[in-house]
Amino acid sequence: MQSDISREDIKARLKDQWLPDLQRDLKELLLKDIGADKDKIERVAAELRSGDTLRAFRLLAEGWQKSGNQKEDGSNEKPKLLPWQAEIYKIAADIPEEAELVQEEARFKASGDDSMYIQLAKGTKRLWRVVSNGSQWRQHIPLRNLVLSHMSMYGSWVTEYRHELLKIRGELLLQIDAWCIAYGSSWNQEESSKAVASGADTPKGPEAGVPKDELQHIFDEILKRLDVLEATYAGKLQEKKIRVEEEIDRGLDVTGTVERSSRKYEKVKVEDNLRSLASQHQKQEEHWQQLMAKLADKLLLSVNFINLHLQASERIEGFSSSIAEFFEINLQQPLEEIKEGLAATMVTFESSDKQTMDEIKQLSSRYRKSLSEQTEKHLLKPLRELTTEAVMSTRFDRFTSAMPDWVNQQPEKAILVDHINLDMKPPHYEVQQVNWQALVRRVVNNQLVTNLAPGKVRFEQFLEELSSGLREFLQIINTNLELINEVKESDEEEPFEVALEGLQRGAQQLDELIKKVEARKSALLGLIKEKEEETFAKLGRLLEEQDANDMRMAGAEFKARETAVDWNTKVKAIWARWLEKGELMVRFIWKKLKDFYTRAEELLGFSSEKNLDSSSTDLATFLAETDEKIESLPFIYRRLFDFQKKVDDRFYIRQTEQLERLKKGYELWQNNFPSVFAVVGEKGSGKSLFLHMLEEEVLKREEVVEINFEATLFEAEEVMEKVAKDLGLAEIDSTEGLIEAINERESRSVVMLENIQNCFIRNLAGYEAIEQLLYLISETNKQVLWIASSTRYGWSFLDKVTSIADYFTHAVESDKLGPEQIQELILRRHRATGYQLVFLPEEATKKSRTYRKLLDDEEKKQEYLQQQFFEKLSKLAEGNSSIAMIYWIRSIKEYDDSYFYINPFQFSNVNRISDLDNEELFVLASFVLHDTLTPEELHNVMHHSLRHSRLMVSRLTSRSILLKTDHGYTLNHLIYRQVIRVLKEANILH
Fold first, then answer.
1. How are beta strands 138-141 and 99-102 bridged, if at all?
2. What positions does the domain ORC1/DEAH AAA+ ATPase occupy (predicted)?
3. What CATH code would you report for 911-985?
4. 654-816: CATH topology
């Protein structure tokens, strides 16, 4: 104990030495902490200015992440002295452990702040001093512990400034993380780095619009806040010194007196207090460091996410570029070259109005060949190869297969920090963990992989559609240029005009294909970009909100999509099936009730007469309108829809099953089994074309003899003579002789007998010719493959009379075209003209709910109207192609340079046909059965006088029901279907 040290000496050393030394050390600690953060932020800012933004973010996060993890690992250690506490002990080592001082006079005088006990004690002290003759009172002070105890007051200052400093760190990490999510994925780090390294301007692109200045502003503001923090707590340090000095001075005055016991500064208590402060400070530091580690993890997660987005964007951009290049090289360039060639052709024909017909034909042939070869070589052939090899599907498959591996660098687990409050001491936050890598992989799979899979893109289907469009383009060009040869002087159009119009429509078709390719390219690139944006927007939103429940729900949602069919879809499918069955049941019940009600009305006599169709028209008007409509059409349309001309092979609707059946029969005949073919169909149903296709596809190795019975021959000698003549067998006057001559021939042959319905007349003596012909066929069917054609109603009649079907081993029908085939028959011809179609709705259709739902989709609306039209047309045509073409032409409302407008299909009743008397109906039935008759032959059929038959034919001809031909009279094909219907209704035809 020092008793020679004075109070003034202690206070002087406190003021001039002990507190200044501690102030200096604490300020150095403050400057060191803040300086370290400033240096770190400056290094990060320097990396940012160099252009390597992601590396800057990693540098910022990883240091604080490691320190936080280290603190977390050592969180169970006993609290140690803090640096500033060590400095206190160092200073205290030079302070005397104890001091004994004379009590000041103020220790004997009561003050207003003293308690009653202190006041009483001071009074006692004064009394005792008087009794003891004024002896000095001394006080024992544990000086070192007193100073240590009060210097520990600096702990609150240290705790406060550390809290504010760490709060600034945390806010910096949060701001950088928010910036990353908001802007970080919008720029390309690599391009930016290259630009900076090369001294070039910042690349223009997605990164150009990102506010990087805002990022620099964040760092500048943090540095300013650190400067303010430094100045603020330097000032508070000075304030704390004054407070500590006052407390120590007060302790020197009252310690060891009745006012304050010396036991307050016992060594154990002082050390316990210092350890308690160290423990509290260490807990706060550990709490902060753990939070900093979590925030650093959060920032690194965002950085990894940005890196994934950048890498994915780079790969997707490269893939998109390859797709665009594919379109450019394989589709767009060849199409543009063909367009240029077509434009040159059109210029040539525009200047050909003064050339001769032969010169125009030569031009037509040359350019037709040139365009066909160019299209085939540069487009159709490559497209076939691309489709067969599935080049684009392979590309998409490889690209999408690699996508799940992109997320391998993402952390398996993500630490989410939410509900952060940095103002609380210690700060409050909540931490949850989610399976981040699995979530990212599922989102990538469902948003990108699934939508870009080859099965979804269906690129080969697009190439097939494009090939079909190109073949249609060539068909337009070839058809129009070929038809120049058929332009007659009586036609209003000039040959070069026909060619030029066809080329113009071909150019329109080509422009549509070019637009289609461009649209497909844009749609594909747009889909890739859209799905990329959706994928990373979804992940970015989950990352920004930091809601673990949302992430788990999203993961479960995408997992469900991967592993199971959506239950909603299943329920909808089941409901749709039951709904369809219910609708069918309701329709069935309603139909039965309606039939019952109708029959009950008839039985009870309540039924009313049916109103005549208000849209009916008479025969003259019908024929006039039809002729007028045909004449008003463009030349190309008149030619392609002329049902009286031979049909071009490319417009033929193949009946594969029928041809296959006859092919098998032909193979039997080749193996010496007798085979005889029959082709049966209504007039105008394509029997001749069917025979032609049979010859081209099945009988191409055979030499075919064609015998056509254009006129009616009912004498056996006439039929045998014609057959013998066409077979090259002269001077044979009997059927037996013809049979013998045929069977003696060394080579086998194929003979086509067209129109065998003209080999009889409906008369008791009129069947000899057909019977002899059938006898000839049956006796020679091993040596000759007989192929006969007949109209449907003539065949049906002959079968009842002569059992003609028994003589033929294979019979096929040419008039059994279904709705789809009728539609293809019409549209194949129409497409060759180059015009577009617009189907118009009828009033009833406009009111239908189905139609109204399609009003905002023109393409689907047209598909619906087209389907309705052809369903009705098919029912009326009953498989007859010529009938279908007639009513297609009648349905044309108008046309312009590009479009044909089609009225809704309506079949008008023809009253004049319905009003025919029974005699006229039987006459018409004869023309249906025989196809061609002269008045003399009609006289034999009807058993009328020759004069009466001539008058009947004349009357029906004047009304355009019959038409005169080179071989007699035949039924007007324009009203063929109406006549058939009337005869069936009259129970004359079956």
1. antiparallel
2. 676-777
3. 1.10.10.10
4. Rossmann fold (3.40.50)
